[in-house]
Amino acid sequence: MKQTTAKGSTDLIHKIEAIEDEILDIKFSILKKLTPSKKNLISLKRIFKNIEISEEEIEEAKKSL
User: Quick check: pTM over 0.70?
Assistant: First the structure.
């Protein structure tokens, strides 16, 4: 009886690992599609040209992550 349970558990672990691999593949394919090409990149320096960000604001942003 224990051998059957152990074999079933091993099979289940292999199935879960296969599903995890498939999920990673899907994530990578989605990220590739969402990644902008070089000609679509916009410099953040241009967007935030006249804005100053304090160290306190940076720390707050880090904490919120």
Answer: no
Residue 45 CA to residue 58 CA, distance in Å, equals 16
Q: Which residue has the tokens 């074999």?
A: 7
More confident residue, 49 or 61: 61
Angle at the Cα of 44 from the Cα atoms of 38 and 45, rounded to 5 degrees: 115
Q: How far apart are CA 23 and CA 20, in angstroms?
A: 5
Q: 19-24 long-range contacts, Cβ below 8 Å, gap at least 24? A: none
